[in-house]
Each structure stands twice: as structure tokens, then as C-alpha cells.
Amino acid sequence: MPMMSDIDIAQSVKALPITQIAQKAGVPGEYLVPYGDNKAKVDLKLLEENRADGRLVLVTAITPTPAGEGKTTTSIGLADGLSKIGKKTVVALREPSLGPVFGVKGGAAGGGWAQVIPMEDINLHFTGDFHAIGAANNLLAALLDNHIYQGNKLNIDPKRVTWKRCVDMNDRFLRSIIGALGARTNGVVREDGYDITVASEIMAVLCLSSGIIDLKERLSRIIVGYTYEDTPVTAGDLKAQGAMAALLKDALKPNLVQTLEGTPAFVHGGPFANIAHGCNSVMATRMALKLGDYVVTEAGFGADLGAEKFVDIKCRLSGLRPSCVVVVATVRALKMHGGLPKTALKEENLDALEKGLPNLLQHVRNVKDVFGMPCVVAINRFPDDSEKELALVEEKCRELGVNVALSEVWGKGGEGGKALAEEVVRLCETPAQLRFTYPDELGLKEKIETVAKRIYHADGVEFSANAKKQIAQLESLGFGSLPVCMAKTQYSFSDNPTLLGAPEGFEISVANVKVSAGAGFVVVLTGDVMTMPGLPPLPAAEKIDVDENGRISGLF
Which of 4-8, 220-224, 447-451 has the lowest mean pLDDT? Predict the structure, then answer.
């Protein structure tokens, strides 16, 4: 019998009515805004109710490899595992971007028997949040270019416009363009480019906002360019924030869905962790904490990116604090970090595993020693993992005082996550005080160097002349106290994607630095990282189809 695909599994399970999931979660009917039978938005007024907060569990991972780690799958399976052992649990995740869905990475709804449903909707249009973000982003771009064309009262230098348009697709053709060619009435000709929607500052703004008023204030602070006199121009100067907020008012409300086992799930917001802060919305996390005794959330890519930004940006700006951290790894991925090709991962190879283990151990040390958080390593088990390989991982982790729990949620759902759930409950009772990587008062250059040395374990940072100039300008404008959002390859601790494992003797190269004044952080572009990905030679889109009954196939 052939193995069922993720979409086959998802379509084999009959979803409970979303009203029933809301009732299970404790969402009063007057706060529920259904989008059909199996998904809904929840009104922000729920947060005004006097409810105690549950425990927050952060799921992160080792440095990603083509072998896969299964962070989202583990997050969902852990939530179902906690439900299995009698804990009232909610999972809070990000929404997938269409770019990876149609590209090479795939969706972000979990896998096997640990998924959120309806997976087709979640991976595609869902409730329209990303469309609203793209519309608000591009409205601001249109108002900006119209202002320049209509007389340029603000004296904006067209060559210093920093705001880009966006589209939620991997489209390398749009990375660098020239606009307004042709008739004079088409506007002022200038170079421009597109970002993918998940890299838009508006995505970050939406995910960090505490409500509609805060949303409008953050939108008004967005810097879109500079005048000829080198003064920043904001969305507020263009009087754009009201209309933008009107487009985003429903997108701000968290989306409620369910796991395959009926555990309530909030899926809301989707910034990438390699080019943005990589966490679901503050509103969804806070709402989940009001509803669940345990809330499982995740941060994108490896702990050097997602977890660092979860701590240094999301927690710093919101006041949220996790009770423990789960670091997800696979034996297969660790063997890739040890130098094995993807074709040789099914064979037992203790030498390659031992060479790759420093990647996991460095992430674990960062969580324990830098962030001050108790943690557990979740080994997402594959059938080919040998007992000796699993024992080696457990031995090395215990040397650091960290337990290992096998996660078999892909094949067993919540039942395969019970051991991990039990360890998480134990860790949540462990006293801990979250620590940031750096204090607010450090300068931008020092914050960047601190992240590079403490989290990446780099020897130092090489700043381009342009980056040095940008840092000086941003500090002179009063942005020096903001946290830094490191835009870096997800495939290495370094900014070189070919340096696997736990590399040593490298420097981080910083090419550009820009402020996201609305989001409240400074973006640091390292290496060759791009804010508009491209499609692979064989895009996943080629396998996706829909039949005459509307049933989607080929979606993983």
C-alpha cells in the first residue's frame, strides 16, 4: 500500500465545525467571525476579558538542511500530545507564504498525522490576510509615487525612495525594475524592485501590533524615503496610515482552525525568519495564552534566526515570556551537517553524526546559556534512525544537562508526542528568567557584533562602508535603541550557506542596514541574503492541480 501524502491524510479527516473548536477553546460565540464551516477569525475584544495566561512553549530547531527537521510538525504534534495527557492546549503558528508553497520548501501546515486543517486553505488563500497586507503595502507605494508626480510638496528625492512594492510569490524577475517608462503622465521614472509579501514591513507591523490604534501608529512611522535635505519621509507624512489600517482591520484578527485531532490552533501572520522576525502575531499568541493552560508556538528556521528574534524582538517588544524551549533535530539532518550527502542518510554512520552534532549542541548552549531557558531536544524520528545513533545524540545532550525526547508525531499524531509533552510539562515548572542577547542601550554596531559573537559564534563583523554610514545616520535619527533584526542565510550559523555544522574562524559581513521604524527594529542585511526569492528548476506548482469537484491534489 503506497504511503499517504500529507494532503491525502488531511483530506481523510473530517474537520469538526469551527463553532465546536471555539467552544472547546473557550471562545464566546459573540467573538467568533466564521469563514465557512472550518475556519474563523476571533475578535480582539476577547483580550479585554480578565483571564489568566497559560504557559508559553517555544519550538525552534537546528540549522535547516534539505533532509528536513519537522519543526512545525513537531509543534502541532506536541500540542496534540499535551492534549492527550489532559492539558488544555492551544497551538499558535504562522501562515504559509505562497512563494515557498509553489516553490521548493512547501507549505507550513505540518505533516503526516500532525497537521492543521483545512491544510489546502491554510497553504493557499486562507482568510486573505496576506492579500490585505500586500494591498496596504502597495497602496503606500502608489500614494508615494503619486505624491512625487503631483508636485512633490514633501521634496522627496526619487533616488532615495526606500519603500518597495510586494507580491506573495517567488518572482526573481521583479527584484530590480525600472518603473514609469513611457508617457510623462506615467510618473517619475526611477529604479525600483519588489519584495515578497512576507518581507514587507507591514507584515512585521501587523504581527507586532497590540491593537488597531497601535497598528495605525506603527503604520504612520514607516519610513518610505528621504528628502533632498536627507530628512526621512514617513507614511504619516503622506497621510496613508488611515487607509492602510482600513485594509488591515480584519487581517489583524487572529485565525482559528484546528489540528487533525481537534486541538484549537491559531494560524496568523507569516514573516520569514531569515529576512524578518519570523514569528506569528503577538495578538494570536496573547489570545492563545488566554485560552490554553499550555500554548505551543514556533519561530522560523534555526534557533540562531527564529529563536533569537523571538527573544530579542518579539519578547522584548511585547513582554511575552516562554516557560521552556524545544529544539527540534533529526539524525538525518545532523549527518548532513557532518558531511554526508542526502543520498547516504539512510545508512548508519556514527562518524558523520558525531561531526554534525556540534550544530545541535551550539543551538542548545545558546538557548540555555544566552537566553537562560530550560530546554529539551526533540528528535523527530525516522524509520532509518539506528538505536546507536539515537543513543549518541542522547549522550551528547545529557552532557549539557538536557534531556532528549523522541518525537514520532508524523506517523502517530499526538500519541507519538506524549513523551515530549511530559518533558515539556516538567520543564515549565522549572524556574527561569529569560535573558536578552544584548541590552537596549548598546549602539547598533555593538548589538550586531554581540549577536554575531554570542549566537553565531563568529570572530567578528565586517561592515561595508555603506553600512557604517547607514548606522551613523540611523543613530543620529534616534533609532540606536531599537533591537536588530539580522537578515542572514538560514543554512549556516555564518552568512555563507556552505559552512555547515558549527563553523569557526569566520566573520559576518554586513552589506546594508535599514530601519523598520513602524515594526520597531533595524534590519541588518548580511552576506547575499535577498528579500525576493526565486523559483527552483522544478517548482512545486507544476504538481498542484484541482479536479472538477474542486478537490486539490499535489499539495505535498
Answer: 4-8
- 511: annotated active-site residue: no
Q: Which of 39, 41, 55, 71 is labelled catalytic?
A: 71
Q: Is the pTM of this model over 0.85?
A: yes
For residues 327 and 58, the answer to whether their CB atoms sit within 8 Å is: no
Our answer to whether residue 163 is catalytic in this structure is no
> Do residues 419 and 86 lie in contact, with contact meaning Cβ atoms separated by under 8 Å?
no
- Cell numbers placing 148: 512625487
Q: Which of 382, 479, 493, 521 is catalytic?
A: 382
Please write down the HEC assignment for all residues of 477-501.
CCCCCCCEEEECCCCCCCCCCCCCC
The owner of cell 499568541 is: 285
Q: How confident is the model at residue 449 (pLDDT cuts 50, 70, 90)?
A: very high
pLDDT single digits (tens) 283-318 = 999 999 999 999 999 998 999 999 999 999 999 999
- Catalytic site includes residue 410: yes
Best CA proximity match to 206, nearest among 246, 236, 248: 248
For residue 1, pLDDT over 60 is answered with no
Residue of 130, 266, 272, 301 with catalytic role: 301
Please name the helix (run of DSSP H) or strand (run of DSSP E) that holds residue 328, with its range, or none.
Answer: strand 324-329
Residues 6+ apart with CB under 8 A from 206: 129, 133, 215, 248, 251, 252, 269, 281
Sign, CA torsion 464/470/474/476: positive
Nearest to 71 by CA among 255, 297, 264, 318: 297
Has 273 been annotated as catalytic?
yes
Is 371 annotated as catalytic?
Answer: no
Q: pLDDT tens, 485-525? A: 999 999 999 999 999 999 999 999 999 999 999 999 999 99
- Computed over every residue of the chain, the mean pLDDT equals 94
Residues 96, 272: Cα–Cα separation, whole Å? 10
Query: 289 — alpha (psi -120 to 50), left (phi > 0) or beta?
Result: alpha
Pairing mode, strands 190-192 and 177-179: antiparallel
71 is catalytic: yes
Residue 77 has pLDDT above 80, yes or no: yes
The alpha carbon dihedral of 316, 292, 202, 117 has a sign of positive
